[in-house]
What does this fold into?
Amino acid sequence: MIPRILIIAGSDSGGGAGIQADIRTVTMLGAHPMTAVTAITAQNTRGVDAVMPVPPEMIVAQIDAVAGDIGVDAVKIGMIGSAEAADAVAARLAGMAVPVILDPVMVATSGARLADAATVAALSRLMTLATVVTPNLPELAALGGEAAVLSHGCLLAAKGGHGEGDMIIDRLIGPDGEIVRVEAPRIDTRHSHGTGCTFAAALATGLGAGMGPKDAFARAVAFVRAALAAAPGLGHGHGPVGHALGVVPFDLVGR
It folds into this structure.
């Protein structure tokens, strides 16, 4: 059966990140995406103009609708919307015995804040349910560092894109130390909107398909790099990556 990936995240009206990036990633990697929208944003490549959280009861209703019919093989959590939503999602996912990938979205690529202090604090409950937590370096610092994240019993995917230098180091870390690291040259582009969402969705897809954490992590890094290299150059700010990798998939299989 095709892997079924439940995406719990916010909508990006510009199509570069959030639910939209997740759907494209899951589809490109051969799985079926389902969604529970946590917030509606008005944004583009230049920034976020407005955010409207979805009520927690509606988020849970979306989860129940797809889980009770289609089924779920893995969950990816992105922008959560509010502390109340985080608590509601945690309570609903507590009974699901599937991999959970938590991307603790706090700040957009443009610099706009997407989580208040109460929501950040509520992420702790979700981390206890997570299989892997995938913060970028500023988010990792806001969560208290590597030891603080690992204390929740999850694995940590420490992404290096926000670091300095010409090489990016991405690491998967467990309670006994580093499991795998990927070092690769930095791709010089301003069109990197949605890389965090894309990575977490790719990781969830791999785990949902039965891949081990090490292989799923390596494939997720490779997919993000390929998408960065294929960025279509849209917009006047931080444009989206190229999830279709510069091709038209339908053209490859014929009409």
